[in-house]
């Protein structure tokens, strides 16, 4: 039986700007049991009058003792994300429950090649997998296909820019492209995954995360390329109120 999840007090230790609307938050959570790359947590805020609001956020980094890392995108008029991205300061506290999820995870013991397909902020749990690979000194080859609106929307830009043996990164832009990019702006296509991903014959484990429409489209393209359904794992999100 899985242990019962409980709410724990999380104190903000550090905050980093990722984009104009996204922030990475490092929390210290006494008693944190650890987690796997790809899992998520619930975050709860409680107002002075007792009103509570909670949202789920993917973990952005592998387990590190009692520290955990989230990257949060501001949702306009949201109840939780604006506080996390615009108001919260080091030393402030929230409640966190988790880790949640056990299927959309990557573990270093796996030897299959990995294809990560991210849409927008769907990069967050996939980045945890990339960082877990690095932490474990795994030699499993990774390929990341990262679809986003424009260059300024890139999460973890500096980190992903640094060369890393065994990790190949392909960017796709849907609204505006940087100078020197020949692919026109547009949605993800079969050719994008054929070129940036692995051949189906290599039997890679595929992880797809992003908005519901993106995830459904990308999964259908992977199936069309011959990837086995049981090797395609998806995590999707939609409007939640933030």
UniProtKB/TrEMBL annotation:
Keywords: 2Fe-2S, Iron, Iron-sulfur, Metal-binding. Residues 5-106 form the FAD-binding FR-type domain. The keyword Metal-binding applies. Its cofactor is FAD. This is Ferredoxin reductase.
